[in-house]
Design a protein that fits this description.
Layout (H helix, E strand, L loop, with lengths): L5 H7 L4 H14 L18 E7 L6 H12 L4 E6 L6 E7 L2 H14 L1
Antiparallel strand pairs: 1-3, 2-3
Length: about 110
């Protein structure tokens, strides 16, 4: 794990530590920096697989869309959902520990739709 200490950042920017920290704080307060993140080792977290699943639907009503959003929001393995143009309507990105978990997510999805 590598953390980038403010002192190291200040040195590389030729600023004092306090001036660097104030600039970072100002960028956070203004929304320029929207959040700080931690990168997780997916193998150690037991989610080494990424699966992309395409979803096609013949229904395009707001009610269906709201139901679909609710259904995928309740499935923690689905980490991203994209609306597409073309043959596939939605692309889901799942982060999972195994194919068995993907199968369980798939069954959960088809049970609700």
């Amino acid at each position: 794990m590598h953390r980038f200490p403010v002192a190291e950042l200040a040195e590389s920017a030729n600023l004092s530590v306090s001036a660097c920290w104030r600039r970072i704080k100002n960028m956070e307060d203004s929304g320029l920096i929207s959040r700080r993140v931690a990168l997780v080792d997916r193998r150690k977290a037991n989610v080494p697989m990424t699966v992309f699943a395409g979803v096609r639907t013949s229904r395009h009503s707001m009610a269906w869309l709201e139901d679909f959003h609710r259904a995928i929001a309740d499935i923690p393995e689905i980490v991203d959902a994209y609306r597409l143009a073309g043959e596939i309507d939605y692309l889901l990105r799942l982060v999972i520990p195994s194919v068995d978990v993907y199968d369980a997510v798939y069954k959960k999805l088809i049970a609700t739709h």
